[in-house]
Amino acid sequence: MTKSEQIIAxxxxxxxxxxxxxxxxxxxxxxxxxxxxxxxxxxxxxxAYSAVNQGHRHPKIIKALKxxxxxxxxxxxxxxxxxxxxxxxxxxxxxxxxxxLPMNTGAEAVETAMKLARRWGVEVKGVENGKQxxxxxxxxxxxxxxxxxxxxxxxxxxxxxxxxxxxxKLIPYxxxxxxxxxxxxxxxxxxxxxxxxxxxxxxxxxGYLKTVREICTKNNIMMIADEVQTGFCxxxxxxxxxxxxxxxxxxxxxxxxxGGVFPVSAVxxxxxxxxxxxxxxxxSTFGGNPLACAVAMASLDVLDNENLADRSEKLGEIFRDxxxxxxxxKVVKVRGKGLLNAVLxxxxxEAWNTCLALxxxxxxxxxxxxxxxxxxxxxxxxxxELMKAIAIIKEVFEKI
Length: 400
Ligand SMILES: *Cc1c(COP(=O)(O)O)cnc(C)c1O
What we know:
Helix content is 37%, strand content 16%. By secondary structure, it is an alpha/beta fold. 47% of the residues are buried. The chain has helices spanning 3-14, 47-50, 59-69, 84-95, 106-125, 146-149, 155-158, 176-182, 208-218, 271-274, 290-305, 308-325, 351-361, 383-397, and strands spanning 28-30, 33-35, 41-44, 99-103, 133-137, 168-171, 187-192, 222-226, 250-253, 265-269, 331-337, 340-345, 363-364, 366-368, 372-375. The model has no long low-confidence stretch (mean pLDDT 98). Residues 49, 105-107, 110, 141-143, 193, 197-198, 226, 228-229, 254-255 line the site of pyridoxal-5'-phosphate.
């Protein structure tokens, strides 16, 4: 057995089988490349589901982590720490909101936003507690908690986890008419992804975000954009909602906020919403911890200093143009924004084998829903590196 095979066997033996990873072990990583124990190197075209937008082990982020580790790492929110205020200020400036609430994982940020919407519904809109409804879009992915999978229509994510959370309604994605028709006097929010990531980079029609904003305002419900995957320059703008210059009432953030180093998530909203949380009504032991704050501040700095939004936009265009030129009968569509892209194969196509072939050729990507492969390299990738990676994709696709 190779070293990799031994490691995989041990992981499978002792670990719950709630994932089905590609058979590759990553032992080292730097920038856009990862390395296995045998010394093979690969382009990382998943970026930990867009949590590594800044590239693996960005020196500035690692330095922030180490420096902070030498001072203080955890206080809980029972006490103040000397860096949380700076982080919240920077995050508010970066996102354009008045206040932020720090958590750790994306799912926690989503739960926080759901709580905020339910509370706002009662305390501001006047909905009776227990009657609040939140509308979600089908094919969504917002995380794995009971409340969140209650809003999922993916059978695998939901199966045998009942009883499900009440007060959830599902409508088709990219359908503003359905949104309008589904709103009742008890609706408190529409929560959605501005581009559906896990669904296979499902980009809505132009104008969708603007119309959603109008409908939410007109009907007095909160517009909540889940930017956990699409945020932080992944789609060619700071946030995917910036493509239509729309400001949601709240955004959920995570993944790349932690720079691929540390779990950091947050909800951002203006005061009139965020002030509805009062002491004791929500919290997290690790939320806002000094290590997370230091890492997140460095992660935001890197996005700005290295112009990663512009680079993502420009290289994304090149990626789609070049991949569309590849001759492969099985490919139906190449879609995406910025460096969040996907190749759709025909119905019934098993992309797992293609991902294995890509791995053998030196590029790591993962299929979603069987017939879709997402391509999302770190945003620090350079144009010549992107072209080399595209050459690998071409070589593999032409053999299908
Ligand atoms: C990944 C993701 C989440 C969940 O984040 P976790 O950190 O895995 O809990 C939520 N929303 C979206 C859009 C995501 O892509």
